[in-house]
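Table S4 entry, Inositol polyphosphate-4-phosphatase type II B.
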Amino acid sequence: MDPLLQHIQRSFLGCTTFTVGDLVKSKEQQLTLTLRTSDGGKTVGTIEVNLVKMGELEDGEPCHITTDSQDQKCALVRECTASEGISGKDNLPSLNAGDVKNPICKLYRFPTSDNKWMRIREQMAETILSFHVPKELINLHIKEDMRRNQELKDLGELAPHWDNMRKSVIAHCDQMLSVYQDTLAELGKHTGSSFKSSCSKGEKTLEFIPINLHLQRMHVHSPRLKDALYDVITVGAPAAHFQGFKNGGLRKLLSKFEAERRNTGYQCIYYSPENTAKAKEVLSNINHLQPLISSHADLLLNSASQHSPDSLKNSLKMLSEKTELFVHAFKDQLVRSALLALYTARPGCVLKKPAVPRNSAEEGDDLKHQDHPSQVKRQDSIPHHSEYDEEEWDRVWANVGKSLNCVIAMVDKLLEKDDSGNVKDGEIDPSAADCKHAGSDWYEQLYPLVITLKDCMGEVVTRAKQSMAFVLLQELACGLPQCLMLTLRRDIVFSQALAGLVCGFIIKLHTGLHDQGFLQQLHTVGLLVQYEGLLSTYSEEAGMLEDMAVGISDLQKVMFKVVEAKSEDFLPIITGRREHYVIEVQLPAKMFELLPQEIKEGKLLRMYPVLFNVGINEQQTLAERFGDTTLQENINQENLELLKEYYNLFTEKMPPDCLPHFQEQNDLKGLLENLHQNIQAKKRKNVEIMWLAATICRKLNGVRFTCCKSAKDRTSMSVTLEQCSILRDEHQLHKDFFIRALDCMRSRQTQGALNDSDDPETGCLTDNKPTSRHFYPVALLLVSSHLLVVWLILSLALLLAKYQ
């Protein structure tokens, strides 16, 4: 083969899917070559190669390789379609799992400071998780809400006031349930692109879907340094765009709603958000543990009927563990106080004192009779009643433990008799008839005790479920319909954030399967997830930032679990409920074997999401000069504390040699201190905050996200700048080529002339191929301060003239 062809083929960095065929023609400084598959030799397109140095500019334009395949013109060094796929150890690791699709690729070659060449492969791909995760999540919301509505109906007979309140709450909940069901049905009909473009961010049927969720990967091959991968997940800010931001975002709306709920009338009881969350947790534990206990009780009886001592011991052990967890779930004053409140809501209950407003003098007298008044703020609605036996719940609750002790004592007695009988018989195995008789005897003695345990447990479950459902009734009744609308908004934002997190976790896990230090960090400390926000604090984007801050904070309640896949379907499985989700990531058997024992045994893996935001556009200039940047300052300060908390946990639990160099720990301390100083400085458009946070994240093996309104212009500028900075700082990019490399990555010429119909961000989508957002040309992000002042004066003059 011609040496030039060999050099071009080597530039594909080990790709084995395609081979470069014969030289077709040559004119001046351009070659046209065929592109064939490596197995069957099928020609899939041609490659035009400009014979200039990669990374250099020619006549002001970046050099590039143009691929023309199947009448699709994309100025890429190499294009990989979903049908052909790509392979090779440096390619996207989860392609085999089907999570990533439609990758597109570009190759660059830039000089290093010692006059060598580095090769860069830049890849971007969609992910089917953009739609899979929201659909799974909505399905869980529907099941959870249907279960809650049934629990409200099962409250039993209530006094007219409370019954009317329940009917109103159930009616509103049913309406909201239909919204989730309709959305899920519409998403099920969706075909076409596997990501949501920014022009669709206002569509109601797609409001749970993240905007422009893509994986951006840079693979660097240096002549003297180890190859390196740098991943960034790019996504539009998680926010409820369809609902709008007229009244702000979640951060402001939740605070306002909670303040209003505290001041509602006496018609409902106020429970703090902590107590409401506790009620949901108790209900979740009941629904989880009750069937498990019943199942283990049946296994115990089955072991007794078979006269199997070992099986009997194991079944008793499991039954004891689950029952203890069950009993422990009700060791809370909230259950006791809610039972009292529910008792007073029953028909025919005569109150010692009439209901009065919360701040009255009578409330102060009643509070003296309550054991823990802090648990329930509305004492007028749950007065102490002389006919209510507060010790009855303690007796019912304690009966479960007593019944379990009786079962344990009987099993011990039976096993002791069995052992003594074997000794007397000289360790001779009994006959089959004797075994059958003994098994029947064991079963008959255990059966009534197990039935008593189940009955006691059933009584506890009934009372606890009703009391906790009554707490949830108060939460909903005190805030209709705002409560349900806020829950919907929070679900929308969380769905978008979770889809990105699942994508980032899976990519990071696949990339780090051979890194034992990372895997140890993953199960010992958890995974750092750093979000870089580029939203302004002006107008609607301030509301988006408030939504985004709450959505990312809610990711702290997500846990991951890695399991071995039992089929060819490797899509993640989501279980749990609001405020507590577990994501099961499935790996093929060969990959699963590479994991530490702790992860293989199902240990839950924690996430530590942090958000740092720096507005960089012209709207941020307005906010800094004439508006308020307090929101951004507070978010950055709060998340700095979370980042410090993760670093302290990391240094406590991980050995010093877990980082590439021991000196890295001192570097991290300096970076954290520098980040702290930059946040405190409150400097305008301080992009140093973003660079420091990203560097700390990479040094701590974290997952990087970059977000702006639509994950296009600002995101593209940030990602390309970060990539070139990494090449300069970590891979010795020649200092004279920094700007050239940056221009080359950002230039639209590198991608070729695309029609509007080919661009998912400007027109209708004609195919499923994503267009790389960071290749777009972007106007200047910052406006000269002098021109800005002139523009503001003229705008104000025009506005005044208009209104006069």
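The first helix runs from residue 3 to 10.
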